[in-house]
Design brief:
Number of domains: 2
Shape: elongated
Largest sheet: none
Distance between the termini: 28 Å
Helix content: 55-70%
Number of strands: 0
């Protein structure tokens, strides 16, 4: 992996991957590509926070995704274990602990290659509510990646509608409060009235919300979980 991460995040319904049979080599490679493009950055930053070494974090992140595909980690998840975010956080913790244990054993003369990492511990990943406490640093990186994907998809949506100028003029108001003067200036730049600018901003917020829900729907099993996941991730972002 290079320091420049992929900027596009393809939509992947993890429950479909989870419920599929053991993948063929080609399917496993495709799944690996989807996983890396979608979840690489929050997982890398989480691991970097643990090991404090950029290149080691790169290697561990790559190793984790290889471990996920090789051992069918996603297929080990269960509906009752909650959101994909939680399961991935717990799986990373187990992976890092295994890596540390095997590295320590190797220093003592043991021979424990990475492809023999213990997967039995994954069966003991707890169910809610224990798992839902999670690691707040991982949740924050996940939330930031989700927000970035949503903002990117919103920009692409406006570009498809040939409304890039509207997007560029109003998108700052998604993350800060806008005054009447702000809407007046945005309207003047767009050649519309202040009232029209305010309505256009409300439309943008609605589109942002719809995209956010679509993104989150890919990481939960049931639509009833979407609002709770949104509240949790927004609360994480509000802490900083």
């Amino acid at each position: 992996m290079s320091e420049n991460q992929p900027s596009r995040f393809p939509t992947t319904n993890w429950s479909i991957i989870l419920e599929s049979a053991s993948p063929s080599p080609a399917a496993a490679e495709e799944a690996m590509s989807r996983l890396c493009s979608r979840y690489w950055l929050p997982i890398f930053k989480f691991i970097l926070g643990k090991c404090r070494d950029f290149h080691q974090a790169e290697d561990l992140t790559q190793g984790f995704f290889e471990f996920v595909i090789r051992h069918g980690v996603i297929q080990r998840a269960r509906r009752e274990r909650g959101r994909f975010r939680n399961f991935m956080a717990a799986s990373i913790q187990h992976f890092l602990h295994n890596q540390h244990d095997h590295a320590t054993a190797a220093k003592r003369g043991g021979n424990h290659p990475i492809d023999r990492l213990d997967t039995a511990c994954l069966e003991s990943i707890p169910s809610p509510p224990d798992l839902f406490s999670g690691d707040r640093s991982f949740d924050r990186e996940w939330a930031l990646a989700l927000a970035a994907r949503t903002m990117e998809a919103l920009a692409e949506d406006y570009l498809r509608r040939d409304s890039k100028s509207v997007h560029d003029a109003l998108v700052p108001f998604l993350t800060r409060s806008a005054t009447g003067a702000d809407y007046e200036a945005a309207g003047a730049a767009l050649g519309i009235s202040r009232g029209a600018a305010e309505q256009a901003c409300r439309t943008m917020r609605a589109r942002f919300g719809a995209i956010l829900r679509r993104e989150i729907s890919q990481t939960v099993f049931h639509p009833d979980e979407i609002e709770g996941e949104i509240r949790h991730l927004l609360s994480i972002l509000a802490e900083n």
